[in-house]
Amino acid sequence: MKTVRKDLLKRRKSADIRKENLQLILTVAEQRFAEFGYNGTTISSIAEQAKLPKSNILYYFKTKEVLYKEVLSQILKIWMVDMEEMTADQHPREALRHYILLKIKQSRDHSNASRIFASELLHGAPFLREKLQTDLKTQFIKTCQVFREWIAKQWMNPVSPEHLLFMIWSSTQAYADYGLQSSILMGKEELDDDDFETGADLLTHLVLRGCGIKLL
Amino acid sequence: MKTVRKDLLKRRKSADIRKENLQLILTVAEQRFAEFGYNGTTISSIAEQAKLPKSNILYYFKTKEVLYKEVLSQILKIWMVDMEEMTADQHPREALRHYILLKIKQSRDHSNASRIFASELLHGAPFLREKLQTDLKTQFIKTCQVFREWIAKQWMNPVSPEHLLFMIWSSTQAYADYGLQSSILMGKEELDDDDFETGADLLTHLVLRGCGIKLL
DNA sequence: CAACTAGCTGACCATTAGGTCAACAAGTTT
DNA sequence: AAACTTGTTGACCTAATGGTCAGCTAGTTG
């Protein structure tokens, strides 16, 4: 295999090799961690699936913990981006609708990342605590502030910003976390596009109506 | 210790011993599994916390898997009870409000159980799949049917029963699963009674208004 | 109280997992 | 192409973990 590649595609530069392997390992690791959790995932199993020897994984990531943290840090970024887009000058009708849609899409498109994040929280966020207390908290406070301004402008009813945000997070997150349960209960192999759409619609509707936001 | 107990409380009967120890082990195991997951929990750590020798745990539960399954099966029961209470002849206003309240209380009072359940689902429900497909699915279908009848009676808008139920599950469940995250973000040690109440109120409000159920 | 059963436990074992290392191969630089 | 850096890997080590077992003690029963 490798010799073939070498012959066909010339020799790979060191920098490329590094980049490719890092990416490969991170991708595979994300899959495994999502499915089996931190303790349930072995370096060997990652190696096997990546078709690399175990030692090679350890060459790029000194320890399993380092690898896991690397995976995690990428996830938190993804998780926070969408929130930044909501600003006080937007109308909550569009802003919330948009945010909910993005968040549900994320559950579909980055299901592994979402699940790792959830699992981490579930078990007390041992590796993520600090970042939660700093990065995410900052963003959280900002977003709550946006909600408060919307309330001040009487664009929405005075609901608790914190709890509203939790509620949106959990409901959207659920399409990743509990996607399996849902599909089992509905007798499907997997949730389909329609499910994600119905979910997004329902949630948007509940939130907008529940917060007394005019639907236009 | 033991000799003291024996002297003070007479000798314990075999049956009692069995019952007490089983209960003790199950309780401790639930704590550990909730905090560290299946793979992250060692029999030794359970033994240590229960102040029993490891062998004694293995005496009552042949394997770790057996113990875990026993913990799980108790959980699913708890998880399903509340749902049964909703029936078509009740008005959704009271029925849903009541259900949401119970479910959130459950997140508070049985936080460990809730988290184990969540973790199990998150990782593909390896030990629970069957029971989901049978017991829970049956109840799920029943409850969706109740929702449909409410819709037929025009007591609520025609929303997707399945997705509505998912949404209630995830939002209430969140107070157990993400309780830690929430408290970190709000700068508290723990979620307090007030939080649970605010959460329940908000969610109830969103659901009732969002489903067009008259608030009285 | 003798025979029996249930509860208890330390010593032991096999497997596995994370991680090290030394030696070699492949790229890079001068 | 020699010297050097980066990438690769199998063999090896150590610690932990799930689980067994033989022998013990404590309750039960005829």
Give me some keywords for this one.
homodimer; HTH-type_TetR-like_transc_reg (chains A, B); DNA-binding; disordered N terminus; 216 residues; elongated; Arc Repressor Mutant, subunit A; 2 domains; mainly alpha; DNA-binding (chains A, B); TetR family transcriptional regulator C-terminal domain-containing protein (chains A, B); HTH_TetR (chains A, B)
**Strand-pairing-aware structural class of chain A:** mainly alpha
Shape of chain A: elongated
Which range best describes the helical content of chain A: under 10%, 10-25%, 25-40%, 40-55%, 55-70% or over 70%? over 70%
Largest interface: A-B, 53 and 53 residues
The largest sheet of chain A is:
none
The CATH class of the largest domain in chain A is identified as Mainly Alpha
Distance between the termini of chain A: 60 Å
- Tally the beta strands of chain A: 0
CATH fold description of the largest domain in chain A = Tetracycline Repressor, domain 2
Topology order of chain A in helix (H) and strand (E) letters? HHHHHHHHHHH
| Rg estimate of chain A, integer Å | 21 Å
Counted up, domains of chain A total: 2
**Rounded average pLDDT of chain A:** 92
Set down the secondary structure blueprint.
The structure is a homodimer of 216-residue chains.
Chain A: H1 2-8, H2 14-40, H3 43-50, H4 54-60, H5 64-84, H6 92-109, H7 111-122, H8 129-152, H9 161-177, H10 179-185, H11 193-210
The structure holds a DNA duplex (30 and 30 nucleotides).
